[in-house]
Amino acid sequence: MKLEYDEPLSKIAFKFNLRRYGWVGQTTTLTASVEFSDGTQFSDAASTHVSIGTLLVFSSDTSSAVSVSGTTATLKANHWKVVSITAAAVCSTGAIAASALVSASVDIAANLAPALGDVDLGYATGVQFPAKSAGQLLDVAVRVNSQGSNLLSYQIDIVW
Asked: Could you give the CA distance from residue 88 to residue 57 in angstroms, rounded to a whole number?
């Protein structure tokens, strides 16, 4: 059943938990609660009788770090600043002017965890390295994923 609404969305609120620290290829399903100008509300736009694609379109401003396809976000790479994920209202019938369509964005830090046998530099939460001015010191955490096994020794070369 496909149902079109002629009432514009008046509010969009994100309802997903994209882990900001994970492995390459880790995915999450994007969804949001929506409210229409007539007061109708869907607390989870993905769990309604209306296809979420007729209500919202999701996008990423840095698809090389976090890609979005339909309602799936995929962590692809570390990124030096936050990535903005946007949910924008759509109206496929054209009954609502594009200028009346609302959107909402959330910023996330794309930060990869080290795979087994891998090393990761920088913070585990937020962006890897905070912004610093010339001359400021930067503390760099080093994490090695030995997956619970004893790590007897390791050597890494860091070229900055």
From this structure: 5
Concatenated DSSP letters for 87-115?
Answer: EEE--TTS-S-GGG--EEEEEE--EEPPP
Taking residue 95's Cβ as centre, other Cβ atoms within 10 Å add up to: 11
Cβ within 8 Å of residue 116, ≥6 positions away: 145, 146, 147
Predicted structure pTM score: 0.82
**Predicted pLDDT at 45:** 83
Q: Domains of the chain by range and CATH?
A: 9-112 (2.60.40.1080)
